[in-house]
Amino acid sequence: MFFVPFQKAKVGKNASYWACANGHKDVVKLLLNISHPNIELNARDNCGYTALMDACSIGHKDVVQLLLDHSKRIELNARNTAGMTALMLACRKGYKDVVQLLLGHSDKEIDLNTRDNDGCTGFTLACQNGEKDVVKLFLSFLDHSGNKNLEFNAKDYVGRTALMSACENGETDIVKLLLNHSSTKEDYLNAQNKCGETAFMIACQKGHKDVVKLFLDHSESNIQVNTRDIFGDTV
Asked: What residues contact 81, with CB distance under 8 A and at least 6 apart?
């Protein structure tokens, strides 16, 4: 006889939540089209996830589209217990199609710059995790939409930029994208975190040779190779 340990159930997951989380778009469509006052579309589990968050974190594009079509009834910027929104979860997982849908609702409804409990935005998370296609989407959005709402230079709570995070993790493709983008100015290249470290210093510390070479080969940059951190150290 096997003993099955008790596990605390995730509370807040109602019928509409499960339909969204499991990608059952026809059921979701049916629930959305019924004006029943007791159908709760923003129920949360004990980690703070809503149906939209779960659909985004799993990549159920069709379900996300349905929920966005009924956006007046959906808490688009709700945050889970880690401070993450639906957009952040999609960015972190690299679901390009989902992110594209969410960016399409950003003008009036979705906050692109909400920060999680570490101070990271969705854009930062995509850079940090090497999600190249998502990063390209953000950069293209920044270029062609005229949207000034995206904080390209956003820093987390220890002062890291998206570029610094990419350098720390050795995400060469992301670093290349950021170095070549028009928003990357000299002050961004040489920005320092709360320890006084620059992106270049971080790449050197971590031994990411290919990333370091990108900086050294970047012809349009004026990288300050002798910047000192708060302890007076250089690379």
From this structure: 47, 48
Q: Report pLDDT digits (tens) over 176-230.
A: 999 988 777 778 888 999 999 999 999 999 999 999 999 988 866 676 766 766 5
Strand, coil or helix: what is 153? Answer: coil
Residue with tokens 């290249």, as numbered in its chain: 189
Q: What is the pTM of this model?
A: 0.86
CA atoms of 194 and 197, how far apart (whole Å): 7
Handedness of CA 188, 151, 54, 66 (dihedral sign): negative
pLDDT in tens, 122-169: 999 999 999 999 999 999 988 876 556 788 889 999 999 999 999 999
Radius of gyration of the chain (CA): 21
> Cα separation of 182 and 13, whole Å?
44
Give the ranges where 104-208 is alpha helix by DSSP (H): 122-128, 132-144, 162-168, 172-179, 186-189, 199-206
Nearest to 202 by CA among 113, 123, 94, 128: 128
Residue for token pair 């007076």: 232
